[in-house]
Write the structure tokens for this entry.
Amino acid sequence: MSQPLKDILVLDFSTLLPGPMATLMLAEAGAEVIKVERPVTGEDARHTSPKIDGESIGFAVLNHGKKSVAIDLKSEDARAILRPLLEKADVVVEQFRPGVMDRLGFGYEAVRAINPRIIYCSITGYGQTGPKAKSAGHDMNYVGDAGVLSLSRGPVDQPTAPFGLVADVGGGTYPAVVNILLALMARQQTNEGVHLDIAMSEGAFAFAYWAHAQGVIAGQDIGSASARLTGGLARYRLYSASDGRQIAVGAVEEKFWQAFCDVIGQPEALRDDWSDPDACAAEVARRLGSQPSTHWEPLLIAADCCCSVVKTPAEAARDPHFTARGVFDRTLNIAGQEVPALPLPIAPEFRSPAGSAGRAATLGEDNVRFGADLRDRE
């Protein structure tokens, strides 16, 4: 099957995570992505650890398969230099605070004047408008402001940081990709572009839809780790085995819960985790804590009751299931070494053949190709 975005040109002004991951997804579906970076140092992610022979692994994981143009956007002739690319680009992705691209001369209206069909995607923490629009923040701030972090923040004396970058990826990357694709479809009908205003904090709300129903619409108070899906019931919690490994008990449905209770020998009198969840959970914890995870894992697998041993990232990458599905078959080149590429939710039918996904371009590698003459501006 032909890659659906093979004729799409994307100019990527974004840095770090949300925008670069979004443009990586577009690149994997066939788009040509040109990363626009500042001269000399490039974007900050190029300097993050760990590294292979001086090359940042994190940067390569998010930016392989893209081209790189290094240019000082503050220079007087930056707009003239980039104009040929802006004229033929289909998508622009930027991640500056509101107003920054306008001051640089690359805001939506300025680019739209050059290319009316442009799909201009702005990814920010709080959106282009509103009292917090220009406020600084990171993932933890966004999920905190969205009320999501309060649902499972750990004990008061030892708060727990979120396990993943929910707002960055779930509130920034994914909405950006979805709306860019929708905009490309809409443009086929109208021949017009659009300015997409993606706010990471707003995108985080969807990850706790049940909290919206319970806390916003029904007006019920939701304490930390007190709801059905955040540890309020014994049947949906993390427990520790005797070897320190954790077991994820997700036996929400009654049939799974009863099957799990049978495995661990939970007494009938302590199986009702609705009437006395603490007593029930305490007994589950005692029983699971009496044996190592190696004892419980085959029993839980056999019971097929939505309970499993929590894996490390390295263990997950070796899981026979993911291996069988080819999740880590794609590789990228970092400093001459072939390493697994980050699994992304792009169907194999829309990607290039499995195997090497390329490498991250060196800073300014494509300047000459695209006519970005920077000899007097470095």
Observations:
- DSSP finds 14 helices and 14 strands in the chain.
- The radius of gyration is 24 Å.
